[in-house]
Design brief:
Length: 284
């Protein structure tokens, strides 16, 4: 009987193959070349997949011969090397990794759901915060566009603080629209789902986003038409597919942690994106 492959080995292999496709072999021509950039990026992704510190990730890699073999490592990178790797990667490179993964899978969706979630900056438990009388005051916000059929993250956006969801709508739409279905004439044949928090100036008439009734005022005709569309989608059960986004948010927090460990604002905003990429590798 064939031995079952560990999911850690599978994710490590996928992460390494993806990094090889999307990134150059070395970040600099005159770098020491002890490890390739894809090897280091794969190690960083495994750190977030395991939801451990960089030091613990190094120890885990030392103990995992199969993962070392999959990543073609002759020696395990020091934890400080992994920290520098994460800090050096730009937003555009993380976007390229996501785009390369989705293009390889040939994702095509009839419905895309958008939602946001918050990550804590404090490592303190909820019990401690309750007993001490303190409140969480700082958050990092991650917004995700999720394909309803594949349940893969198709677009992402991050920010600092609680804030409104509406500013996240258009950036998520721009990223995710390339994975929406098109008719034979090339016209849009997919629909965007979201909750009331995304209602605003950038909401389009065919988006299934419930309009907010402000100060109990009468809705304008276009907003009333969108409300009718949402009501019909609720009756047909289609609007309920929006909860796929809630499921994805829950999996990310339960599997990969709901806290942000980086100190600088730039890297704090990067962590929700890395967690989103790791989630996609997890569900493949």
């Amino acid at each position: 009987m064939a031995q079952r492959e560990s999911r850690y080995v599978k994710v490590a292999r996928l992460a390494y193959q993806l990094a090889q496709q999307a990134l150059p072999r070395y970040s600099r021509a005159k770098s020491p070349h002890r490890y390739s950039l894809p090897q280091r990026v794969a190690c960083v992704l495994m750190k977030y997949y395991l939801d451990v510190s960089y030091r613990d990730a190094e120890e885990w890699l030392l103990a995992s011969d199969q993962v070392q073999q999959v990543l073609e490592l002759k020696q395990v990178p020091d934890y400080s090397t992994l920290i520098r790797t994460f800090g050096a990667l730009r937003q555009s490179e993380w976007d390229r990794l996501l785009r390369t993964l989705l293009e390889g899978l040939k994702v095509e969706e009839a419905a895309i759901s958008v939602d946001t979630t918050h990550f804590r900056l404090s490592q303190a438990s909820a019990y401690f915060m309750t007993r001490s009388g303190r409140q969480y005051r700082e958050w990092v916000k991650g917004g995700y566009a999720v394909g309803v059929a594949s349940q893969l993250i198709l677009g992402w956006r991050s920010g600092r603080g609680i804030g409104y969801d509406q500013p996240y709508l258009e950036p998520l739409r721009r990223q995710a629209r390339r994975y929406g279905q098109r008719s034979e004439e090339g016209k849009r044949a997919w629909v965007l789902l979201g909750d009331m928090g995304f209602d605003g100036k950038t909401t389009r008439p065919y988006d299934l986003i419930p309009p907010q009734r402000r100060n109990h005022a009468h809705m304008a005709a276009p907003r009333q038409a969108r409300q009718d569309l949402v009501s019909q989608a609720r009756l047909e059960g289609f609007y309920g597919q929006r909860w796929k986004s809630e499921t994805v948010n829950s999996v990310i927090k339960r599997k990969f942690g709901e806290t942000i460990c980086s100190r600088s604002l730039r890297l704090q905003r990067r962590e929700p994106l890395v967690k989103g990429l790791v989630y996609n590798l997890h569900v493949l």
